[in-house]
Amino acid sequence: MTIVLTPYWTNGVQKLKLAPQRMPLLFSPSQWIPIRRTAVKPKRGLVPPILDESVHALRCLNQLRSKDKSIEKYIYLSALKDQDPNMFYKLCLENMSEITPVIYTPTVGDACLQYSHIYRRPEGLFVSIKDKGNIREVINNWPRIDEARISVVTDGSRILGLGDLGVNGMPISIGKLSLYIAGAGIRPQSTVPICLDLGTNTQKYLDDPLYLGLRQKRVSDKEMTEFMDEFMHEMSAAFPKLMIQFEDFSTDNAFKYLERYRNKYAVFNDDIQGTGAVVLSGFLNAAKLSSAASGQPLSSHRILFFGAGSAGVGVAQQLMSFFTLQGLSKEEARRRIWLVDSQGLVYNARGRLAEHKKYFSRDDYNGAPMTDLVEIIKHVQPTALLGLSTITGAFTPEVIQTMASINARPILFPLSNPIRLSECSFADAVQYTNGSVLFASGSPFPEQQFRGTTLYPGQGNNMYIFPGLGLAAILGRVSSVTDSMVEASSLGLADSLNDEEHAQGLLYPRIERIREISGQIAKAVIRAAQREGVDRNESLRGLNDVDLLKLIREKMWTPQ
Ligand SMILES: NC(=O)C1=CN([C@@H]2O[C@H](COP(=O)(O)OP(=O)(O)OC[C@H]3O[C@@H](n4cnc5c(N)ncnc54)[C@H](OP(=O)(O)O)[C@@H]3O)[C@@H](O)[C@H]2O)C=CC1
Ligand SMILES: CC(=O)C(=O)O
Ligand SMILES: [Mg+2]
């Protein structure tokens, strides 16, 4: 333990105090300075004579656009957020569709891959296996404990579809929280990005002299569970008002720790539940258009998942409610879903299966393993093909054409991230279905011209869900995040398409409307929490819907 000069702010004035610190001056200004600091009038002579805010926004935007490489844009925006958070979030809000792909997928994937090389300054909290037994001490170093409300926690073991990146996963926690702030007006000082360092099994990083994490293989399951139990206990003790979002844990641990903590703490897994909710929402809109074209009822849809990890199975679980909402029983809903993993079609007679695949494993097929996707499509006759496999280009022209040959409007959702791992591009989906495709991808694709018409791709990404869900958790002071709350977020999103978006055949609303949408989602989620009795903010219970929505909007932080 060392004694260091710790900066703090009082009445807009920076001061220093002597304080014991484990991590001396480890925090960037945007984390320890109250955001209102930029409102303090600078002294004469310390800024240029004419510094108009709106002109300065244009100046920042021009600087951003002058960079050729996405990673350079990421680095620029990261510095801007550190130096002038108000300007950063103002730019985000005014240019959502341009900036989201830089601070989030796909570019955040590159930022993670290169994190140890592009690293400039500390941001977020690192808790390592070496801290086991003393985790409270590390957490107590966080400079704004009382203000913390939302944390995104990753262990870096499955970052997007890029594999085990170890401590290089920190930018995913940072990026998700930037979207919480931009998308739902969570106060910046309420957010806590966390990366757990439990080692990495990626040799390239262990050999990299610049790697920022521990040089050791991942710890055993037993040691990780002991660590996680201590971490969760200390987090809830230090931050009693915090909701935790688990992000990009490898599939087995994603399911394990969600089940272990979901009834004890306010936690939610973005890859299982957030992805499930966003896909259910887009699927509800796509299925209506598909059924209108085929004349078949909504309940007759058949969904084939290519990829059966945390995301694939999480979405499959959530899509059960698509069918139960149409009046089918759970068993009937289950039978309308098929999974494919790296060994092909998932069915009981195939042999031992991972626990998370068992529920959807088919008992109506006993033949030889079926591994060819075209053959599987011909066997299943799906109306929808969803990709969560990390296999680039798995939806080949033949796969897409086969889907088009059996459906008037095939639903194709290649959802793997980042963009280079997408199962197909929007251009291919349009070309090989003759423009009939109902499309959503995990990362954004450009619109396409087809026979004189502009066709728009959807972005089926959990970024539409978690900001509103998190805002609801904070305002409703929920004790846990229930399945009904997750479903409510999905239905709230599905309902948020406006007339213009409907007319353009969109499956998701335009990202520019994210604040409005997050407000609607937050309202729906708070109502669900109230119905289930997990809300602890009694003052919201007496509000009618109009007043609740008004209050939600008033509570959103806005850059000054
Ligand atoms: N759009 C969104 O909002 C989100 C997208 N995702 C994306 O989903 C992807 C998957 O994530 P996650 O589920 O956690 O990852 P996993 O690695 O756990 O799952 C991948 C799945 O794909 C299967 N698979 C791998 N190779 C093949 C193959 N050749 N043929 C068929 N199936 C194959 C795996 O099979 P097996 O089980 O046999 O190993 C596994 O079931 C990632 O790219 C991630 O970015 C995740 C969350 C949100
Ligand atoms: C979007 C997201 O959470 C993922 O790809 O993991
Ligand atoms: Mg994720």
Automatic annotation (TrEMBL):
Its cofactor is Mg(2+); Mn(2+). Gene3D superfamilies: Malic enzyme, N-terminal domain, NAD(P)-binding Rossmann-like Domain. Residues 81-262 form the Malic enzyme N-terminal domain. GO terms for molecular function: malate dehydrogenase (decarboxylating) (NAD+) activity; metal ion binding; NAD binding. One of its GO terms (biological process) is malate metabolic process. The keyword Signal does not apply. A divalent metal cation binds at residues 247-248, 271. (S)-malate binds at residues 158, 417, 461. Divalent metal cations. Prefers magnesium or manganese. The active site is at residues 104, 176. Residues 272-530 form the Malic enzyme NAD-binding domain. Keywords: Metal-binding, Oxidoreductase. NCBIfam families: PRK13529.1. PANTHER family: MALIC ENZYME-RELATED (PTHR23406), NADP-DEPENDENT MALIC ENZYME (PTHR23406:SF32). Belongs to the malic enzymes family. This is Malic enzyme. It comes from Leucocoprinus leucothites.
